């Protein structure tokens, strides 16, 4: 764990998810697609990730994650 991860626990994982969404969008849409189309695709992919995360919660988690998407 580097110094940034110690100061901002969990943010690198969120940023990784954002990067994954971008990779999926650009893989499907390419680099020449309109911004609005890419935004819609990113919203849809983010929704799929959120659904997946909600399927695997830890029961009675003592320290639930507080998400701050400013990465």
Shape: elongated
Q: What number is the mean pLDDT? A: 80
How many helix segments?
A: 3
Largest sheet, described in full?
none
Rounded to the nearest angstrom, the distance between the terminal CA atoms is 17 Å
Radius of gyration from the alpha-carbon trace, in angstroms: 15 Å
Counting DSSP E segments of at least 2 residues, the number of strands comes to 0
Quote the beta fraction: under 5%
**Structural class based on helices, strands and sheet pairing:** mainly alpha
SSE pattern, N- to C-terminal:
HHH
Runs with pLDDT <50, length 5+? none
Your description of this structure?
This protein is mostly helical. The protein has a domain at 30-57. It has helices spanning 3-7, 11-29, 35-54. Helix 2 crosses helix 3. The two termini are 17 Å apart. The model has no long low-confidence stretch (mean pLDDT 80).
What are the defining features of this structure?
71 residues; 0% strand; 62% helix; mainly alpha; elongated
Helix and strand arrangement:
Elements (H helix, E strand, L loop, with lengths): L2 H5 L3 H19 L5 H20 L17
């Amino acid at each position: 764990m580097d110094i940034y991860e110690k100061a901002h626990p969990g943010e690198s994982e969120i940023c990784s998810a954002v990067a994954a969404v971008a990779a999926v969008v650009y893989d499907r849409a390419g680099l020449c697609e309109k911004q609005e189309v890419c935004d819609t695709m990113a919203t849809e992919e983010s929704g799929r990730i959120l659904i997946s995360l909600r399927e695997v919660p830890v029961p009675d988690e003592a320290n639930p994650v507080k998400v701050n998407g400013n990465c």
